[in-house]
Design goal:
The protein has about 375 residues and is mostly helical. The protein contains 14 helices and 3 strands. About 65% of the residues lie in helices and about 5% in strands. Helix 3 crosses helix 4.
Length: about 375
């Protein structure tokens, strides 16, 4: 039980240009000294180049991900030295899902002099690159152990980046675009964990682990995706998120993913009951198969994002129906047990968690502003 093809990945955020060489040099000249601005000229130039590399990254490869993380690390370190609200640089970022349009030119556009907007947005885009890298590794690996391992690791890193972005936005006093809201960033972190758990399940399935274990792993995948579905459009979804994603293809795609792995969980649970009880709990087995069929049948009626996805759903549904039918015939012929029409979802066993962001000083490699005295220290020294 699995849907082939790319996993769900959000689009990257876009940004307007920032003139580091002019504005940061001016700040250092007026606040520190002309000599300080001269001493940090190369660092400022490098900072501008790092930002440009991040925004122009076309492929989700190791180099581009590393460059993006290095830029995040450098501005995080710089944030400890300079109060960017005093620098005069305005950062402008657009919502990844709903940016400006002709009729709504300001839609999704956020501006701030806070460096934390830049930090959060860079982490958001770094996470998207890591997710894309993971999805590619998953597809190119064709379900092989190395591809699944690489994919899972990428998704866990991305989850940590979204968590880091949430911490950065908590320090921003001005309004945020919806994609940087705590609710949306939490949703995206959960999406990454769902993808990583899926890789773990598929690896376990490839290793021929017992059906009872596979049922728990698949159920955890379904639970992650169910959390996202609830956040997007469920009865308890936040008004802002529900409005932002109304009519979005993700709503059905997530519902389909949840259904597939819920069906997988019940299917493996049915097989586990059959093997462990030697067929003597056929009624319970049939209940799990019935749930697998019911889950896939409901999902197959949703509008799919692609014809191939719909075709895959029909194939999975046909398999589930066949398994249910075979078990039912076996019960009618041999066991004659009361057929159960439903079953509780198998207990989930999550095996993944978000990976913490690296230490900024380690990640940056070389702090280009390491000799710059923090502005707070400099101002404190002037009082003596």
């Amino acid at each position: 039980f699995a849907l082939m093809g790319s996993m769900l990945v959000p689009p990257r955020k876009k940004s307007l240009a920032v003139d580091y060489p002019k504005l940061l040099a001016r700040f250092l000249t007026s606040t520190y000294s002309p000599q300080e601005a001269t001493d940090n000229r190369d660092g400022i130039k490098a900072l501008a180049e790092m930002r440009a590399q991040c925004l122009s990254a076309a492929e989700a490869n190791d180099t581009n991900i590393d460059n993006s993380v290095k830029y995040w690390a450098q501005i995080s370190l710089l944030d400890k030295r300079i109060d960017f609200n005093q620098v005069g640089i305005t950062f402008t970022w657009l919502d990844a899902f709903k940016g400006p349009t002709t009729l709504a030119p300001s839609q999704g556009k956020v501006t701030s002099t806070s460096l934390h907007l830049e930090i959060a947005s860079v982490l958001f885009n770094s996470a998207v690159l890591a997710m894309t890298h993971g999805s590619t590794a998953h597809n190119d690996g064709n379900g092989g152990p190395e591809g699944l391992k690489t994919a899972a690791q990428s998704f866990k890193k991305a989850a940590g980046m979204f968590a880091g972005a949430a911490k950065a936005t908590a320090k921003i006093e001005s309004s945020l675009s919806t994609d940087l809201s705590p609710e949306c960033l939490s949703l995206l972190e959960t999406l990454c964990l769902g993808h990583a758990q899926r890789c773990f399940f598929e690896k376990a399935k490839g290793d021929n682990m017992k059906d009872g274990i596979l049922a728990k792993l698949a159920s955890a995948v379904a639970h992650f995706y169910a959390q996202i579905g609830t956040s997007l459009s469920g009865p308890h979804a936040g008004e802002k998120i529900a409005k932002h994603f109304k009519g979005h293809a993700w709503i059905n795609d997530i519902a389909v993913e949840e259904a597939v792995f819920r069906a997988a969980a019940h299917s493996h649970a049915a097989q586990a009951v059959c093997i462990e009880k030697n067929g003597m709990e056929k009624g319970k087995e049939l209940g799990h198969y019935a749930m697998a069929v019911r889950s896939l049948d409901a999902a197959s009626k949703l509008k799919a994002s692609s014809p191939s996805r719909l075709a895959q759903m029909k194939t999975l549904l046909a398999k589930a129906q066949k398994d249910h039918s075979n078990a039912k015939k076996e019960n009618e012929t041999i066991y004659h047990m009361v057929e159960e029409k439903t079953a509780a979802d198998p207990e989930g066993k999550a095996m993944v968690k978000s990976e913490a962001l690296p230490d900024a000083l380690v990640a940056v490699g070389s702090d280009r502003f390491g000799s710059l005295v923090p502005d707070s220290v400099r101002r404190g020294a002037l009082t003596f």
